[in-house]
Amino acid sequence: MAGTQRYLRYIMFALVCLILLFFISSSSTVPATPWQGVKPQDQDVEAGKVPPTTPNTQNGLGPATASGEHMNATFVTLARNSDIWEIARSIRQVEDRFNRKFHYDWVFLNDDEFNDEFKKVTTSLVSGKTKYGKIPTEHWSFPDFIDQDKAAQVREEMKEKKIIYGDSISYRHMCRYESGFFFRHPLMLDYEWYWRVEPSVELFCDIDYDTFKFMADNKKKYSFVLSLYEYVETIPTLWDAVKNFTAAHPEHVVEGNSMGFLSDDDGKTYNHCHFWSNFEIGNLNWLRSSAYIDYFTSLDHAGGFFYERWGDAPVHSIAAALMLKKEEIHFFNDIAYYHVPFTHCPTGEKTRLDLKCHCNPKDNFDWNGYSCTSRFFEVNGMTKPEGYEKEQ
C-alpha cells in the first residue's frame, strides 16, 4: 500500500511539472507590455535613433537629452577610492534629479591613483564622460615656506581644544587644494563652468533647466545654496591676511561688491559669514583670473592653511564677495540640497510641489539664526520668499 501511494505522488509531481513547462513556454512568446504611454526604447537605441540613456530614464521619467545649447561645463569631485559608495550615492542623486537630461561630464580628482572599482562604478552611473586625474604632489604637500614644526604644534593645540579637523593634515591639504588648485588641474582646463559635488550629498527636487546656461545667460559667476558663520577658532587671522591683500591690490576689489555680507563695519572686522562651498556652481575663468590667483597666493604665503585651519569655504566666499559685483553671485532657492548636518529645502510650498521635492521644510536651514542667507537677501535688496517666517 505504501509503495502504491509513493508511485502516485511521483506521477502527480510529474504532471505538475509538465503543466508548468507548458505555461512557461507559452508565455515566452507573448511580448512584454511596457508601462502605459511609454514606447520601448531598446531597439531604437541599438539603431541609433535615440541616444543611450542612464538607468531610470525610461518608464515615463523624462527625455534623456535636453534641447538647446550645451555649456562647456563639468561636475568635479575630490574623492578617494574609499569614498566609492558615498560618491556613488551622490552621483545617483545628481543624475536622477538633473544630469540624465543634460549629460554633462564628471571630473574626479584624487591625491592617489583611482582604482578599477572606483572607475567602473562611477563610469556606469554618469551619463556624460568621466575623467580621472591625480593631483600633483606639489599641490598636496607642505610648501617650502611653511615651518612644519610650528604647523605640528598648532595641530596638537587644536586637537586638545577639540576643534573639528583641527589635528588633520589631509584636511588642510584638501582646503588648500580646493582654494587654489583644483581649477588649474589639466583636466579642468577644458571647461569654463563647474559644479562641485561631495560624497554623500542629497538633492531633494527636480532641476529641469540647465543651471550652467542660467549662470551664463544671467552673467553670474558664483552660486550657493547654504551659508553660515565659520568656526572662529579656525580662522583667527584670515581677515588680517585679506586686508593685507586688498591693501596691496586695491585694483582687485570691485565697486558694487558684497562687503556688507562679510562685515558689519565696512571691512574693519569680519563677521564670519561664508557660502558653504561643498555645493558650488561657478565660473572657472574667474578662478583662473589674475585677481583670484593673486588673492590665493597672498593668503597661501600668510600660512593660515597650516598655522591655523583655513577652510576653502571662507576663502572662496571672501573672494567672491570682494571681487565680484553683487549681481554676479546667485542663491539657488530651487536646488534643494543636503550635506551633513545642514539642509536647504526651498522656501515656498508651490515651488516644492512643482519641483517634486521630498524634503521636509521644517529642516530648512536658510532662516535659522546661524544662517547668513537673510544677510545675503538684505545686502542685495531682495525680497525673501513667501513663507520664510514660518521657517524661522
Shape: globular
Summed up, the helix count is 15
For the largest beta sheet, what order do the strands appear in spatially? 3-2-1-4-9-6-10
Low confidence ranges: 16-62
Q: What kind of sheet is the major sheet? A: 7 strands, mixed
Terminal Cα span: 83 Å
The secondary-structure class comes to alpha/beta
Q: Give a count of the beta strands, DSSP E runs of length 2 or more.
A: 12
In round numbers, the mean pLDDT is 87
Protein name: Glycosyltransferase family 15 protein
Keywords: Glycosyltransferase, Signal, Transferase
Pfam families: Glyco_transf_15
GO molecular function, one term: alpha-1,2-mannosyltransferase activity
What does this structure look like?
The chain is an alpha/beta fold and 392 residues long. The chain has helices at 2-27, 42-46, 84-97, 116-125, 148-160, 169-180, 211-217, 238-248, 259-262, 284-287, 290-302, 304-307, 312-323, 349-354, 373-379, and strands at residues 73-78, 105-110, 130-134, 193-196, 202-203, 222-224, 227-229, 273-275, 280-283, 329-331, 337-339, 342-344. The strands form three sheets. A seven-stranded mixed sheet has the order 3-2-1-4-9-6-10. It has a three-stranded antiparallel sheet with strand order 5-11-12. A hairpin with a 2-residue loop joins strand 11 (337-339) and strand 12. Helix 3 runs parallel beside helix 4 (116-125). It is globular and about 55 Å long. Residues 35-67 are annotated as: Disordered.
